[in-house]
Amino acid sequence: MRVRIIGTDLPGSGGRLPGVQLGVQHRDTVVDALPADAPSVTFELEVTVVATADGLDFRGPSVHGRRGERFLYLVWIRPNAEGTPKMFRRAKLQLAPVVPLLPPTVSDADGRIVIGSLALTDAKGEPVCASVRPPAISWQLG
């Protein structure tokens, strides 16, 4: 299935976080990094849905965590003194709330698009981090 993450309300507007970018963690690498001062960001990921004895599970290079606790990482990066991008925060987008949206069989999940929408600035005006669950993220079938 495809997962589309749509982030709005980025914390870098007005030059507040110069050089900061947001990307997706793909295994141990940050990919598709976009500027934190954009009006919005969209990431597209491929996630494999598999059937297990406990129900549906998620797999793929962008999926992290143990079975039943799977998530996607959004990674905040900024250049260090040498100009090399370094992670300084991560947000865990929990995938458990996606399961009830999916059809009960894996073959019916193929070709589906699941959309997660979230604001990326927290109540203190900082980049969203830590574990992100509804209502902080809204999941729906596309």
Q: What's the total count of β strands?
A: 12
- Which class of secondary structure composition applies to the elements? mainly beta
Low-confidence stretches: none
Please state the CA-atom Rg, rounded to the nearest Å: 15 Å
Helix and strand pattern:
EEEEEEEEEHEEE
Largest sheet: 6 strands, mixed
Total individual domains: 1
Distance between the termini: 11 Å
The helix content, as a percent range, equals under 10%
- Roughly what fraction of the amino acids lie in strands? over 45%
Shape by Cα distribution = elongated
Number of helices: 1
Please tell me the overall pLDDT.
Answer: 92
Show the helix and strand layout.
Layout: E1 2-8, E2 21-26, E3 29-35, E4 40-46, E5 48-52, E6 55-59, E7 63-64, E8 71-79, E9 85-94, H1 106-109, E10 113-119, E11 130-132, E12 137-141
Parallel strand pairs: 1-10, 9-11
Antiparallel strand pairs: 1-4, 2-3, 2-8, 5-6, 7-8, 8-9, 10-12
